[in-house]
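Chain A, query sequence.
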Amino acid sequence: MSMNVGSGGAKGADPEPMMEMNMTPLIDVMLVLIIMMIITIPKANHSVNLNMPVGTPPPPTKEPVVVTIDVDFDGTILWDNAVIPDRHSLEAKLMDVAAQADQPEVHLRPNKLVSYKVVAGVMASAQRLGVTKIGLVGNEQFQ
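Chain A, predicted structure.
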């Protein structure tokens, strides 16, 4: 401990103002705040949750029903080689698939030249309507 004794000036004179600020308490408070912030920040999770099967599945008793959705280069959607005129018709067919107890497999085959927006729209509609067995077919064309 040390004591600051002043400059010994004239009696009754105002003491000189202290020119230095004590930074130690300020630094201590800032370190405590940084540590609290680090502890309370949630862990960043940039992953997609997948429902993966556990163990080996039993062998299939019958061949699964497969529905093929083709997306042509210009955005034309084909359901088992039949043209779907609009989004409403596609969603009606997807609702029929989702309503079945044993859903058929939906194979989505996009053309290499089609815009991502069209394919993502089909997948989003299928997910929103409850289609659980959907997969992309023909990925070797993108390599």
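The longest strand covers residues 66-71. The beta strands are 66-71, 77-79, 82-84, 105-110, 134-136.
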